[in-house]
TrEMBL record, chain A:
It comes from the Bacteria. GO terms for biological process: cell morphogenesis; division septum assembly; regulation of cell division; regulation of cell septum assembly. This is Probable septum site-determining protein MinC. Cell division inhibitor that blocks the formation of polar Z ring septums. Rapidly oscillates between the poles of the cell to destabilize FtsZ filaments that have formed before they mature into polar Z rings. Prevents FtsZ polymerization. InterPro entries: CAP/MinC_C, MinC, MinC_C_sf, MinC_N, Septum_form_inhib_MinC_C. It comes from Thermanaerothrix daxensis. Interacts with MinD and FtsZ. Keywords: Cell cycle, Cell division, Septation. The keyword Repeat does not apply. The keyword Cell division applies.
């Protein structure tokens, strides 16, 4: 496959055909560069399906239409125009062009009914975390098992332990003050939520009640974990 | 014969790894088993002293690994128990003189010759421990009823699990029933609850262990002391016998409760 020496126009193969990406420059220059390139490599481009990513350029309907016609003359069919500009996107849609590449996992999921929730990313750990184990994630953490003293969990979100929590947990590592820490049995070495640190006093007699730690007025508070 | 390789380890130092290794090896040899123990604590060797074989060392583990002698030449035979051998550690080298694959190769060579290979691991989780763990078929984790020893045992069990070695069996050593009864020592049930591994023996605190260690005469040579009896029981459990746990306490102490705990578990060998 030919590569473009001209850095203003980059072409790569994608599942749906070819994807052209425009760099900086005047629209007319970019358009000319693309057409010249296609003419030079006519044999390669013959019958190709082209998607163009115009980036921040605002392309008006007349320009887009004429480009499509010109490409058609060269035996290339334009089927999609990707753009950061809503105006250009609408223009492309009016011309019957696609404005998104189909992807197996769309970046923005299709809007569904209000009763369907997207959920958030969480890591599920179905084992006991022994001393020296360390779990670090930007999402939430769910542990089915024990968290022993000497084990550490660092989560961007909340941490739920379905078992005994006796290690160290830091929820909301990136400053998420809404993060909570829940455990069936709360006897941690230390708890941290966002930038707050709490040392939990646990007596000899353990409370076996499920507990939840959360931030309230900038302080970590511990309370019975009850359904809401 | 295809030997079973048993690594004795603890993480923390001073909990009784070497004493346990020596006594289990002696107890198994007393039961007619052919046993080799390997001291993997290169640079800080002890097992030879505890077994009373220090003055017989000519070649050591590093000599075998570096090819200065044959394996047979480094195996010191115990005169009291003709089926008990020791491969001592080098005292003048360090842990890096041996690699995990050296240990595995050595054990493969020994396996057809004996019934049991006991490896006395050094404290810590570094190279020496990795060496001792590499050939293991079973890992005996020795701990004391103290928070720091239990914490290290947990770490060790975690590493053993991560390396997919095992099974792990726990030996709770130096248990003092009086202290436990008064609540001054960690409760054995708490230890088991935290570590969640199968217990294979409880060894009571016993001054006979110190006396015998200094003499180079492991307590398990005779079952007269409580600790000696406890080690003999562990040896029999290793052989697959179902031996009840010692009742160290006359009242309704924790050991009694523990014994019940076990029987309900029903998997003790």
């Amino acid at each position: 496959m030919p590569t473009t020496a001209d850095r203003r126009v980059q072409i790569k193969g994608i599942r749906e055909g070819l994807l052209v990406t425009f760099g900086e420059g005047e629209w007319s220059e970019l358009r000319t560069a693309l057409l010249t390139y296609i003419q030079e490599q006519a044999a390669f481009f013959k019958g190709a399906r082209l998607a163009i990513d115009v980036g921040n350029h605002v392309v008006h309907a007349a320009e887009m239409g004429s480009l499509r016609d010109r490409l058609s003359d060269l035996g290339v069919s334009l089927w999609a125009v990707l753009s950061n500009s809503p105006v250009t996107e609408r223009t492309a849609q009016v011309l019957g062009l696609a404005t998104r590449l189909p992807s197996p996992r769309p970046e923005r999921p299709v809007r569904r009914g209000d009763t369907e929730l997207e959920g958030e990313n969480a890591v599920l750990v179905q084992r006991t975390l022994r001393s020296g184990y360390r779990l670090s994630t930007r999402g939430h953490v769910v542990v089915i098992g024990e968290v022993n003293p000497g084990a550490e969990i660092y989560a961007g979100g909340s941490v739920v332990v379905w078992g005994r929590l006796r290690g160290t947990v830091h929820a909301g590592i990136e400053g998420n003050t809404a993060a909570v820490i829940c455990a069936l049995e709360m006897a941690p070495v230390q708890l941290r939520i966002a930038d707050q640190v709490a040392v939990i006093q646990t007596g000899r007699r353990r409370k076996t009640e499920p507990m939840m730690a959360r931030l309230e007025n900038g302080q970590i508070v511990l309370e019975p974990w009850k359904g809401k | 014969m295809v030997a079973k390789v048993v690594t004795v380890t603890s993480g923390k130092g001073g909990v009784g790894k070497t004493t346990t290794t020596a006594n289990l090896a002696v107890a198994l040899a007393t039961l007619g088993q052919k046993v080799v123990c390997i001291d993997a604590d290169i640079g800080l060797r002890n097992l030879d002293v505890v077994l009373g074989l220090e003055n017989r060392i000519v070649y050591d583990l590093v000599d075998v690994v570096e090819g200065r002698c044959r394996l047979r030449q480094a195996m010191i035979r115990d005169k009291r128990l003709p089926e008990l051998y020791l491969i001592p550690a080098a005292q003048t080298r360090d842990k890096n003189a041996v690699s995990p694959s050296d240990m595995s190769r050595l054990c493969e060579e020994l396996r057809p010759e004996v019934d049991w290979i006991f490896i006395d691991s050094p404290a810590g989780i570094e190279r020496g421990f990795r060496n001792a763990l590499a050939p293991a078929d079973m890992v005996l984790v020795v701990t004391n009823p103290e928070v720091s020893a239990v914490r290290d045992a947990d770490r060790i069990i975690g590493i053993v699990e991560a390396e997919e070695k095992g099974p792990v069996r726990l030996i709770l050593n130096r248990v003092n029933p009086n202290l436990t009864r008064r609540g001054d020592m960690l409760n054995a049930e708490d230890v088991l609850e935290l570590l969640a591994v199968e217990l294979i023996g409880i060894v009571p605190e016993d001054e006979n262990v110190i006396i015998s260690t200094n003499k180079g005469q492991p307590v398990a040579l005779d079952g007269k002391s409580r600790a000696g009896l406890a080690f003999q029981n562990i040896a029999r459990r290793l052989m697959g016998e179902n031996v009840p746990f010692l009742n160290l306490d006359s009242g309704d102490g924790f050991l009694k409760r523990l014994t019940r705990l076990f029987r309900s578990g029903g998997t003790m060998g």
